[in-house]
Specification:
Elements: H1 14-19, E1 23-28, E2 52-56, H2 57-64, E3 71-73, H3 81-90, H4 96-99, H5 103-110, H6 118-138, H7 145-148, H8 153-175, H9 184-200
Length: 201
Protein backbone atom coordinates (compact mmCIF):
# COMPACT_ATOMS: atom_id res chain seq x y z
CA UNK A 1 0.00 0.00 0.00
CA UNK A 2 1.64 3.26 -1.10
CA UNK A 3 0.81 6.91 -0.58
CA UNK A 4 -0.17 7.92 -4.11
CA UNK A 5 -1.28 11.51 -3.47
CA UNK A 6 0.51 14.26 -5.36
CA UNK A 7 1.28 17.61 -3.83
CA UNK A 8 2.23 19.32 -7.07
CA UNK A 9 0.23 19.59 -10.29
CA UNK A 10 0.28 16.15 -11.87
CA UNK A 11 -1.45 15.48 -15.19
CA UNK A 12 -1.84 11.76 -14.47
CA UNK A 13 -3.04 12.05 -10.86
CA UNK A 14 -6.77 11.42 -10.35
CA UNK A 15 -6.57 13.16 -6.97
CA UNK A 16 -5.02 16.24 -8.56
CA UNK A 17 -7.79 16.31 -11.19
CA UNK A 18 -10.45 16.15 -8.47
CA UNK A 19 -8.75 18.91 -6.47
CA UNK A 20 -8.70 21.27 -9.45
CA UNK A 21 -12.45 20.75 -9.95
CA UNK A 22 -13.06 22.79 -6.76
CA UNK A 23 -14.67 26.15 -7.49
CA UNK A 24 -12.93 29.45 -6.72
CA UNK A 25 -14.66 32.87 -6.38
CA UNK A 26 -13.63 34.83 -9.48
CA UNK A 27 -14.32 38.37 -10.71
CA UNK A 28 -14.04 39.23 -14.40
CA UNK A 29 -11.82 42.22 -15.13
CA UNK A 30 -12.85 42.59 -18.79
CA UNK A 31 -15.86 41.86 -20.99
CA UNK A 32 -15.79 38.32 -22.39
CA UNK A 33 -17.88 37.86 -25.57
CA UNK A 34 -19.93 34.72 -26.32
CA UNK A 35 -19.44 33.13 -22.89
CA UNK A 36 -22.58 34.35 -21.17
CA UNK A 37 -23.68 30.72 -20.67
CA UNK A 38 -21.08 30.38 -17.93
CA UNK A 39 -23.33 32.58 -15.82
CA UNK A 40 -26.65 30.72 -15.42
CA UNK A 41 -28.38 33.79 -13.97
CA UNK A 42 -27.54 36.05 -16.95
CA UNK A 43 -29.62 36.34 -20.12
CA UNK A 44 -26.91 38.02 -22.21
CA UNK A 45 -24.43 36.30 -24.54
CA UNK A 46 -21.44 38.12 -23.06
CA UNK A 47 -19.91 38.17 -19.60
CA UNK A 48 -19.71 41.75 -18.43
CA UNK A 49 -16.77 43.28 -16.60
CA UNK A 50 -17.30 43.02 -12.82
CA UNK A 51 -19.31 39.79 -13.03
CA UNK A 52 -18.54 37.43 -10.16
CA UNK A 53 -18.66 33.66 -10.73
CA UNK A 54 -17.36 30.53 -9.05
CA UNK A 55 -15.03 28.91 -11.59
CA UNK A 56 -13.21 25.58 -11.29
CA UNK A 57 -9.59 25.98 -10.25
CA UNK A 58 -8.26 24.45 -13.49
CA UNK A 59 -9.94 27.28 -15.44
CA UNK A 60 -9.55 30.16 -12.96
CA UNK A 61 -5.85 29.59 -12.36
CA UNK A 62 -4.55 30.23 -15.91
CA UNK A 63 -6.98 33.11 -16.49
CA UNK A 64 -5.80 34.94 -13.38
CA UNK A 65 -2.03 34.45 -13.60
CA UNK A 66 -1.47 35.44 -17.22
CA UNK A 67 0.51 38.53 -18.16
CA UNK A 68 -2.80 40.33 -18.73
CA UNK A 69 -5.22 38.57 -16.34
CA UNK A 70 -8.85 38.26 -17.38
CA UNK A 71 -10.11 37.57 -13.87
CA UNK A 72 -9.08 38.12 -10.27
CA UNK A 73 -9.56 35.25 -7.85
CA UNK A 74 -9.86 35.25 -4.09
CA UNK A 75 -9.43 32.73 -1.33
CA UNK A 76 -12.20 30.16 -1.00
CA UNK A 77 -14.39 30.67 2.07
CA UNK A 78 -12.85 27.77 4.01
CA UNK A 79 -9.39 29.43 4.02
CA UNK A 80 -10.55 32.91 5.04
CA UNK A 81 -9.84 34.44 8.43
CA UNK A 82 -13.00 33.25 10.22
CA UNK A 83 -12.28 29.60 9.41
CA UNK A 84 -8.56 30.01 10.08
CA UNK A 85 -9.35 31.22 13.60
CA UNK A 86 -11.57 28.19 14.21
CA UNK A 87 -8.81 25.84 13.05
CA UNK A 88 -6.23 27.61 15.21
CA UNK A 89 -8.49 27.33 18.27
CA UNK A 90 -9.10 23.55 17.98
CA UNK A 91 -8.41 21.86 14.66
CA UNK A 92 -9.34 18.41 16.03
CA UNK A 93 -12.96 19.46 16.59
CA UNK A 94 -13.52 20.53 12.96
CA UNK A 95 -15.22 18.24 10.44
CA UNK A 96 -12.80 18.67 7.53
CA UNK A 97 -14.92 16.44 5.31
CA UNK A 98 -17.67 19.10 5.35
CA UNK A 99 -15.20 21.88 4.57
CA UNK A 100 -13.79 20.07 1.55
CA UNK A 101 -12.79 16.60 0.46
CA UNK A 102 -9.29 17.82 -0.44
CA UNK A 103 -8.68 20.45 2.23
CA UNK A 104 -4.87 20.19 2.27
CA UNK A 105 -4.28 19.77 -1.47
CA UNK A 106 -6.54 22.68 -2.40
CA UNK A 107 -4.86 24.76 0.29
CA UNK A 108 -1.50 24.16 -1.36
CA UNK A 109 -2.89 25.58 -4.61
CA UNK A 110 -4.54 28.68 -3.14
CA UNK A 111 -1.91 29.60 -0.53
CA UNK A 112 -0.26 31.91 -3.08
CA UNK A 113 -3.38 34.10 -2.91
CA UNK A 114 -2.41 34.92 0.68
CA UNK A 115 0.79 37.04 0.63
CA UNK A 116 1.03 37.02 4.44
CA UNK A 117 1.36 33.22 4.51
CA UNK A 118 -1.51 32.66 6.96
CA UNK A 119 -3.03 29.87 4.86
CA UNK A 120 0.25 27.96 4.77
CA UNK A 121 0.66 28.28 8.54
CA UNK A 122 -2.89 27.14 9.27
CA UNK A 123 -2.50 24.12 6.96
CA UNK A 124 0.61 23.05 8.83
CA UNK A 125 -0.97 23.69 12.25
CA UNK A 126 -4.13 21.78 11.30
CA UNK A 127 -2.21 18.76 10.02
CA UNK A 128 0.07 18.61 13.07
CA UNK A 129 -2.84 18.90 15.51
CA UNK A 130 -4.99 16.31 13.76
CA UNK A 131 -2.13 13.87 13.07
CA UNK A 132 -1.79 13.11 16.79
CA UNK A 133 -5.50 12.30 16.93
CA UNK A 134 -5.18 10.27 13.74
CA UNK A 135 -2.47 8.11 15.32
CA UNK A 136 -4.76 7.46 18.30
CA UNK A 137 -7.53 6.40 15.93
CA UNK A 138 -5.28 3.87 14.19
CA UNK A 139 -4.61 2.04 17.49
CA UNK A 140 -8.28 1.11 17.68
CA UNK A 141 -9.05 -2.52 16.76
CA UNK A 142 -12.32 -1.57 15.04
CA UNK A 143 -12.20 0.71 11.98
CA UNK A 144 -14.75 3.36 13.05
CA UNK A 145 -16.65 4.83 10.04
CA UNK A 146 -17.92 7.78 12.12
CA UNK A 147 -14.36 8.93 12.75
CA UNK A 148 -13.46 8.44 9.10
CA UNK A 149 -16.39 10.61 7.99
CA UNK A 150 -14.78 13.64 9.71
CA UNK A 151 -11.51 13.31 7.79
CA UNK A 152 -10.53 14.76 4.44
CA UNK A 153 -9.23 12.37 1.75
CA UNK A 154 -5.55 12.62 2.72
CA UNK A 155 -6.29 11.98 6.40
CA UNK A 156 -8.61 9.13 5.47
CA UNK A 157 -5.86 7.44 3.44
CA UNK A 158 -3.35 7.87 6.28
CA UNK A 159 -5.89 6.48 8.74
CA UNK A 160 -6.54 3.40 6.61
CA UNK A 161 -2.82 2.78 6.08
CA UNK A 162 -2.08 3.22 9.79
CA UNK A 163 -4.94 0.95 10.82
CA UNK A 164 -3.86 -1.71 8.32
CA UNK A 165 -0.28 -1.56 9.61
CA UNK A 166 -1.46 -1.80 13.21
CA UNK A 167 -3.58 -4.86 12.45
CA UNK A 168 -0.63 -6.52 10.70
CA UNK A 169 1.61 -5.85 13.70
CA UNK A 170 -0.99 -7.25 16.12
CA UNK A 171 -1.42 -10.33 13.96
CA UNK A 172 2.34 -10.92 13.83
CA UNK A 173 2.73 -10.46 17.61
CA UNK A 174 -0.16 -12.85 18.34
CA UNK A 175 0.74 -15.57 15.83
CA UNK A 176 4.52 -15.50 15.84
CA UNK A 177 6.16 -18.47 17.53
CA UNK A 178 9.54 -16.78 17.65
CA UNK A 179 10.58 -15.29 20.97
CA UNK A 180 11.95 -11.78 20.85
CA UNK A 181 15.43 -11.66 22.41
CA UNK A 182 18.01 -8.94 22.76
CA UNK A 183 20.82 -9.07 20.21
CA UNK A 184 24.13 -10.42 21.49
CA UNK A 185 25.80 -7.07 20.81
CA UNK A 186 23.31 -5.36 23.16
CA UNK A 187 23.80 -8.01 25.86
CA UNK A 188 27.60 -7.72 25.63
CA UNK A 189 27.38 -3.93 25.76
CA UNK A 190 25.32 -4.10 28.98
CA UNK A 191 27.83 -6.54 30.56
CA UNK A 192 30.73 -4.27 29.64
CA UNK A 193 29.02 -1.26 31.20
CA UNK A 194 28.34 -3.25 34.38
CA UNK A 195 31.99 -4.30 34.62
CA UNK A 196 33.19 -0.74 34.06
CA UNK A 197 30.97 0.52 36.89
CA UNK A 198 32.20 -2.26 39.24
CA UNK A 199 35.81 -1.34 38.49
CA UNK A 200 35.20 2.19 39.73
CA UNK A 201 34.47 0.98 43.24
Amino acid sequence: MTLCYSYTPNYFSIEDILVTQERIPSKFLVNIPKLGKLNPSAEENDIKQGTTLDLPLWLADPLSFERHPLISIELPRIYKEAYREILKADATAVDLHKLGLYFYELGLYVKRLDPRGEVERVLLHTFRSRFRQLMDFTDSVVCDPIKQNRLDMLERLLYQMGHFGRMQLNSWLNNSEMRLEAASMVVNHKKRKRIDVDDLF
